[in-house]
Amino acid sequence: MPITSVASDPDTLTLTVVGEYDVPLERLWQAFVDPRQLERFWGPVEWPATFTRHDMAIGGQSRYYMTGPDGTRAHGWFRFLVIEPGRRIEVEDGFALDDGSPNPAMPTMRMSFAFEETPTGSRFTGVTRFESVEAMEQVLEMGMEEGMRSAMGQLDGVLADLAAFAADRRTEAQLLGETKARVSRIIRGTPEAVWRAHHDPALLKRWLLGPDGWTMPVCEVGEGVGESYRYGWEAEDGSGRFGFEGEILESEPPSREVTTQQMIGADGPTTLNELTLVPVPSGTLLTLVITYPDAETREAALATGMTDGMEMSYARLEQEVLEGAVA
Questions:
Q1: Domain 172-322: which topology?
Q2: Phi/psi class of residue 121: alpha, beta or left (left: φ > 0; alpha: ψ in -120 to 50)?
Q3: How much is the pTM?
Protein backbone atom coordinates (compact mmCIF):
# COMPACT_ATOMS: atom_id res chain seq x y z
CA MET A 1 0.00 0.00 0.00
CA PRO A 2 1.46 3.41 -0.96
CA ILE A 3 1.15 6.82 0.72
CA THR A 4 -2.20 7.14 2.46
CA SER A 5 -2.18 10.92 3.02
CA VAL A 6 -0.23 14.15 2.61
CA ALA A 7 -1.76 17.12 4.42
CA SER A 8 -0.71 20.60 5.56
CA ASP A 9 -2.16 22.32 8.65
CA PRO A 10 -1.57 26.08 8.93
CA ASP A 11 -2.89 26.12 12.51
CA THR A 12 -0.14 23.78 13.76
CA LEU A 13 2.39 24.82 11.09
CA THR A 14 2.87 21.21 10.02
CA LEU A 15 2.99 19.11 6.88
CA THR A 16 2.27 15.43 7.50
CA VAL A 17 2.77 12.42 5.25
CA VAL A 18 1.62 8.89 6.12
CA GLY A 19 2.38 5.69 4.27
CA GLU A 20 1.67 2.02 4.94
CA TYR A 21 3.71 -0.79 3.44
CA ASP A 22 3.46 -4.56 3.37
CA VAL A 23 7.06 -5.09 4.50
CA PRO A 24 8.54 -5.74 7.96
CA LEU A 25 9.40 -2.70 10.07
CA GLU A 26 13.15 -3.34 9.81
CA ARG A 27 12.94 -3.23 6.00
CA LEU A 28 11.20 0.16 6.09
CA TRP A 29 13.71 1.48 8.61
CA GLN A 30 16.68 0.39 6.52
CA ALA A 31 15.44 2.41 3.55
CA PHE A 32 16.04 5.59 5.57
CA VAL A 33 19.39 4.43 6.98
CA ASP A 34 21.03 3.52 3.67
CA PRO A 35 21.85 6.53 1.45
CA ARG A 36 21.72 4.29 -1.64
CA GLN A 37 18.06 3.64 -0.90
CA LEU A 38 17.15 7.03 0.54
CA GLU A 39 18.24 8.88 -2.57
CA ARG A 40 15.86 6.77 -4.66
CA PHE A 41 12.82 8.35 -3.02
CA TRP A 42 13.96 11.53 -1.23
CA GLY A 43 13.54 13.74 -4.29
CA PRO A 44 10.51 14.06 -6.60
CA VAL A 45 10.48 11.88 -9.71
CA GLU A 46 11.70 14.77 -11.89
CA TRP A 47 14.31 15.84 -9.30
CA PRO A 48 16.19 12.72 -8.13
CA ALA A 49 18.42 13.07 -5.08
CA THR A 50 22.11 12.29 -4.68
CA PHE A 51 23.49 11.97 -1.14
CA THR A 52 27.13 12.95 -0.72
CA ARG A 53 27.00 12.53 3.08
CA HIS A 54 24.71 10.60 5.42
CA ASP A 55 26.07 10.27 8.97
CA MET A 56 23.19 8.68 10.80
CA ALA A 57 24.33 9.38 14.36
CA ILE A 58 23.26 12.01 16.89
CA GLY A 59 24.78 15.27 15.69
CA GLY A 60 25.62 13.71 12.35
CA GLN A 61 24.77 15.41 9.08
CA SER A 62 23.40 14.56 5.69
CA ARG A 63 24.07 16.56 2.55
CA TYR A 64 22.43 16.01 -0.79
CA TYR A 65 21.39 17.66 -4.00
CA MET A 66 18.45 17.12 -6.32
CA THR A 67 19.02 17.38 -10.06
CA GLY A 68 16.30 18.84 -12.28
CA PRO A 69 15.48 17.90 -15.88
CA ASP A 70 17.72 20.69 -17.20
CA GLY A 71 20.64 19.78 -14.94
CA THR A 72 19.92 22.44 -12.31
CA ARG A 73 20.85 21.36 -8.79
CA ALA A 74 18.96 22.19 -5.60
CA HIS A 75 21.01 21.49 -2.48
CA GLY A 76 19.77 20.47 0.97
CA TRP A 77 21.01 19.28 4.36
CA PHE A 78 19.77 17.86 7.62
CA ARG A 79 21.26 17.20 11.05
CA PHE A 80 20.25 14.28 13.25
CA LEU A 81 18.77 15.27 16.61
CA VAL A 82 17.07 12.04 17.73
CA ILE A 83 17.59 8.43 16.64
CA GLU A 84 15.62 5.59 18.21
CA PRO A 85 16.48 2.55 16.08
CA GLY A 86 13.42 1.08 14.42
CA ARG A 87 11.14 3.71 15.95
CA ARG A 88 11.94 7.36 15.40
CA ILE A 89 14.22 9.84 13.64
CA GLU A 90 14.17 13.59 14.20
CA VAL A 91 16.24 16.05 12.20
CA GLU A 92 16.81 19.72 11.60
CA ASP A 93 16.32 20.25 7.87
CA GLY A 94 17.05 23.06 5.49
CA PHE A 95 18.13 24.34 2.10
CA ALA A 96 21.80 24.62 1.21
CA LEU A 97 24.13 26.65 -0.96
CA ASP A 98 26.14 25.02 -3.73
CA ASP A 99 28.95 24.16 -1.30
CA GLY A 100 26.52 22.27 0.97
CA SER A 101 26.44 24.86 3.74
CA PRO A 102 23.03 26.07 5.06
CA ASN A 103 21.37 28.79 3.00
CA PRO A 104 20.61 31.64 5.46
CA ALA A 105 18.04 33.14 3.10
CA MET A 106 15.78 30.08 3.35
CA PRO A 107 13.78 28.71 6.30
CA THR A 108 14.90 25.85 8.50
CA MET A 109 12.43 23.12 9.46
CA ARG A 110 12.21 20.32 12.01
CA MET A 111 11.24 16.91 10.65
CA SER A 112 10.25 13.83 12.62
CA PHE A 113 9.77 10.33 11.21
CA ALA A 114 7.90 7.71 13.20
CA PHE A 115 7.97 4.00 12.31
CA GLU A 116 5.56 1.39 13.66
CA GLU A 117 4.40 -2.14 12.98
CA THR A 118 0.92 -2.78 11.59
CA PRO A 119 -1.10 -5.99 11.16
CA THR A 120 -0.06 -6.06 7.50
CA GLY A 121 3.48 -4.70 7.72
CA SER A 122 4.66 -1.26 8.78
CA ARG A 123 3.70 2.41 8.79
CA PHE A 124 5.70 5.58 8.29
CA THR A 125 4.53 8.99 9.55
CA GLY A 126 6.58 12.05 8.68
CA VAL A 127 5.82 15.46 10.20
CA THR A 128 7.52 18.67 9.08
CA ARG A 129 7.23 21.60 11.52
CA PHE A 130 7.78 25.17 10.36
CA GLU A 131 9.02 28.09 12.44
CA SER A 132 6.38 30.54 11.21
CA VAL A 133 3.40 30.99 8.93
CA GLU A 134 5.63 32.92 6.52
CA ALA A 135 8.18 30.10 6.39
CA MET A 136 5.47 27.52 5.80
CA GLU A 137 3.86 29.56 3.03
CA GLN A 138 7.21 30.17 1.36
CA VAL A 139 8.06 26.47 1.22
CA LEU A 140 4.59 25.31 0.21
CA GLU A 141 4.54 27.87 -2.62
CA MET A 142 7.72 26.23 -3.88
CA GLY A 143 5.77 22.99 -4.27
CA MET A 144 6.90 21.06 -1.20
CA GLU A 145 3.58 19.27 -0.71
CA GLU A 146 3.43 18.06 -4.31
CA GLY A 147 7.13 17.25 -4.26
CA MET A 148 6.80 15.17 -1.12
CA ARG A 149 3.90 13.25 -2.60
CA SER A 150 5.94 12.50 -5.72
CA ALA A 151 9.07 11.62 -3.75
CA MET A 152 7.49 9.32 -1.19
CA GLY A 153 5.42 7.68 -3.90
CA GLN A 154 8.65 6.01 -5.04
CA LEU A 155 9.25 4.26 -1.70
CA ASP A 156 7.13 1.24 -2.65
CA GLY A 157 9.50 0.35 -5.46
CA VAL A 158 12.56 0.74 -3.23
CA LEU A 159 11.10 -1.54 -0.55
CA ALA A 160 10.25 -4.17 -3.16
CA ASP A 161 13.84 -4.22 -4.44
CA LEU A 162 15.35 -6.77 -2.06
CA ALA A 163 18.21 -7.96 -4.24
CA ALA A 164 19.87 -4.57 -4.79
CA PHE A 165 20.42 -3.99 -1.08
CA ALA A 166 20.81 -7.53 0.27
CA ALA A 167 23.28 -7.98 3.12
CA ASP A 168 25.33 -10.51 1.16
CA ARG A 169 26.10 -8.24 -1.81
CA ARG A 170 29.74 -7.61 -2.64
CA THR A 171 31.49 -4.26 -2.32
CA GLU A 172 30.08 -1.81 -4.87
CA ALA A 173 31.06 1.66 -6.07
CA GLN A 174 28.71 4.37 -7.35
CA LEU A 175 29.63 7.65 -9.01
CA LEU A 176 28.47 10.81 -7.25
CA GLY A 177 28.63 13.99 -9.26
CA GLU A 178 31.79 14.84 -11.15
CA THR A 179 34.55 13.81 -8.73
CA LYS A 180 33.18 11.55 -6.00
CA ALA A 181 32.69 7.80 -5.69
CA ARG A 182 30.73 6.03 -2.94
CA VAL A 183 31.86 2.55 -1.91
CA SER A 184 29.31 0.55 0.10
CA ARG A 185 29.15 -2.81 1.84
CA ILE A 186 27.27 -4.31 4.78
CA ILE A 187 29.72 -5.79 7.29
CA ARG A 188 28.44 -8.48 9.65
CA GLY A 189 29.54 -6.91 12.90
CA THR A 190 28.71 -3.96 15.15
CA PRO A 191 29.91 -0.43 14.33
CA GLU A 192 32.09 -0.55 17.43
CA ALA A 193 33.76 -3.77 16.28
CA VAL A 194 34.23 -2.50 12.73
CA TRP A 195 35.68 0.78 14.01
CA ARG A 196 38.14 -1.08 16.23
CA ALA A 197 39.19 -3.26 13.31
CA HIS A 198 40.04 -0.06 11.40
CA HIS A 199 42.16 1.38 14.23
CA ASP A 200 43.90 -1.55 15.95
CA PRO A 201 47.22 -2.21 14.15
CA ALA A 202 47.20 -5.91 15.05
CA LEU A 203 43.72 -6.32 13.55
CA LEU A 204 44.44 -4.18 10.48
CA LYS A 205 47.41 -6.38 9.59
CA ARG A 206 45.07 -9.39 9.56
CA TRP A 207 42.46 -8.10 7.13
CA LEU A 208 43.51 -4.98 5.18
CA LEU A 209 45.52 -6.99 2.65
CA GLY A 210 43.56 -7.06 -0.60
CA PRO A 211 44.27 -10.20 -2.68
CA ASP A 212 45.90 -13.23 -1.09
CA GLY A 213 49.69 -13.25 -1.03
CA TRP A 214 50.23 -9.77 0.43
CA THR A 215 51.46 -8.62 3.83
CA MET A 216 51.24 -5.28 5.67
CA PRO A 217 54.62 -4.60 7.31
CA VAL A 218 53.90 -0.89 7.83
CA CYS A 219 50.84 -0.02 9.93
CA GLU A 220 51.09 3.31 11.75
CA VAL A 221 47.59 4.27 12.89
CA GLY A 222 46.40 7.77 13.74
CA GLU A 223 43.88 8.11 16.55
CA GLY A 224 42.70 11.72 16.59
CA VAL A 225 42.24 14.85 14.52
CA GLY A 226 45.54 16.21 13.25
CA GLU A 227 47.40 12.91 13.59
CA SER A 228 48.85 11.11 10.59
CA TYR A 229 48.75 7.50 9.46
CA ARG A 230 50.98 5.43 7.22
CA TYR A 231 50.24 2.03 5.69
CA GLY A 232 52.56 -0.10 3.57
CA TRP A 233 52.18 -3.45 1.78
CA GLU A 234 54.43 -5.90 -0.01
CA ALA A 235 54.14 -9.33 -1.58
CA GLU A 236 55.13 -12.32 0.54
CA ASP A 237 58.47 -12.48 -1.31
CA GLY A 238 59.18 -8.83 -0.43
CA SER A 239 58.47 -7.41 -3.87
CA GLY A 240 55.91 -4.89 -5.08
CA ARG A 241 56.16 -2.52 -2.14
CA PHE A 242 53.72 0.40 -2.02
CA GLY A 243 51.80 2.39 0.57
CA PHE A 244 49.57 5.29 1.49
CA GLU A 245 49.75 8.05 4.06
CA GLY A 246 47.51 10.86 5.17
CA GLU A 247 46.05 12.95 7.98
CA ILE A 248 42.92 12.59 10.09
CA LEU A 249 40.66 15.62 9.58
CA GLU A 250 37.57 14.45 11.51
CA SER A 251 37.06 11.61 13.99
CA GLU A 252 33.77 10.71 15.66
CA PRO A 253 34.03 7.11 16.96
CA PRO A 254 32.40 4.80 16.06
CA SER A 255 30.46 6.44 13.26
CA ARG A 256 32.59 8.78 11.11
CA GLU A 257 36.17 9.53 10.12
CA VAL A 258 37.53 11.84 7.43
CA THR A 259 41.10 11.49 6.18
CA THR A 260 43.34 12.55 3.35
CA GLN A 261 45.19 9.89 1.37
CA GLN A 262 48.20 10.01 -0.92
CA MET A 263 50.53 7.35 -2.27
CA ILE A 264 53.87 7.29 -0.44
CA GLY A 265 56.81 8.52 -2.50
CA ALA A 266 54.71 9.60 -5.46
CA ASP A 267 53.53 12.90 -6.86
CA GLY A 268 50.05 11.49 -7.37
CA PRO A 269 46.86 13.24 -6.31
CA THR A 270 45.50 13.45 -2.77
CA THR A 271 42.00 12.19 -2.13
CA LEU A 272 39.54 12.96 0.65
CA ASN A 273 38.08 9.81 2.23
CA GLU A 274 34.89 9.98 4.35
CA LEU A 275 34.17 6.74 6.24
CA THR A 276 30.74 6.26 7.79
CA LEU A 277 29.55 3.29 9.87
CA VAL A 278 25.81 2.96 10.50
CA PRO A 279 24.06 0.08 12.29
CA VAL A 280 21.54 -1.85 10.20
CA PRO A 281 19.53 -4.97 11.10
CA SER A 282 22.10 -7.26 9.46
CA GLY A 283 25.25 -5.60 10.82
CA THR A 284 26.97 -2.33 9.86
CA LEU A 285 26.57 -0.39 6.64
CA LEU A 286 30.07 0.78 5.74
CA THR A 287 30.12 3.72 3.37
CA LEU A 288 33.29 5.30 2.02
CA VAL A 289 32.87 8.48 -0.04
CA ILE A 290 36.08 9.29 -1.91
CA THR A 291 36.61 12.72 -3.46
CA TYR A 292 39.15 12.78 -6.30
CA PRO A 293 40.75 15.89 -7.79
CA ASP A 294 38.99 15.29 -11.11
CA ALA A 295 36.86 12.80 -13.04
CA GLU A 296 39.83 11.35 -14.91
CA THR A 297 41.62 10.41 -11.69
CA ARG A 298 38.43 8.85 -10.36
CA GLU A 299 37.96 6.74 -13.49
CA ALA A 300 41.57 5.61 -13.42
CA ALA A 301 41.33 4.55 -9.78
CA LEU A 302 38.15 2.55 -10.29
CA ALA A 303 39.60 0.91 -13.41
CA THR A 304 42.37 -0.68 -11.33
CA GLY A 305 39.87 -3.12 -9.81
CA MET A 306 39.91 -1.21 -6.54
CA THR A 307 36.54 -2.50 -5.35
CA ASP A 308 37.56 -6.12 -5.99
CA GLY A 309 40.53 -5.69 -3.69
CA MET A 310 38.37 -3.98 -1.09
CA GLU A 311 35.87 -6.84 -1.25
CA MET A 312 38.61 -9.36 -0.52
CA SER A 313 39.68 -7.31 2.47
CA TYR A 314 36.15 -6.84 3.81
CA ALA A 315 35.40 -10.55 3.41
CA ARG A 316 38.57 -11.30 5.36
CA LEU A 317 37.50 -8.77 8.01
CA GLU A 318 34.25 -10.67 8.54
CA GLN A 319 35.69 -14.16 8.43
CA GLU A 320 38.97 -13.77 10.28
CA VAL A 321 38.48 -10.79 12.61
CA LEU A 322 34.79 -10.29 13.39
CA GLU A 323 34.07 -14.03 13.23
CA GLY A 324 30.45 -13.57 12.20
CA ALA A 325 29.45 -11.15 14.95
CA VAL A 326 26.14 -9.48 14.00
CA ALA A 327 24.69 -6.28 15.40
A1: Alpha-D-Glucose-1,6-Bisphosphate; Chain A, domain 4 (3.30.530)
A2: left
A3: 0.91
